[in-house]
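Weekly puzzle thread! Below is a chain. First person to post its structure in token form gets bragging rights.
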Amino acid sequence: MNIDREYIIKLYEIYKGLLTEKEKSYFEYYYFEDYSLNEIADLYKVSKAYTSKYLNKINKNLLKYEDTMHIESRKCMILTCLEEINDEKVKDKIEELL
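Winning reply:
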């Protein structure tokens, strides 16, 4: 699965509360700590193939959550609309909510 790294990290920040501790640790080692698949596999005493499949499962779940709840896409639409607002106070208040 070839997913944009920045996009999947954004989804993780939004939906990480829906993941298990194990899923979070695999994700964070790979995306935030830059561990290789081999390093994660060694850490958890599993195969590299398992590690890859597990990370793909996590990514699929994050994409599924976004497909269902649309939080990131709605946030992007709101940010686009914000560009058209001239009142800085209103703009600042909306940005705080995001």
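Puzzle host: Confirmed. Bonus trivia for everyone else. The chain has a mean pLDDT of 92.
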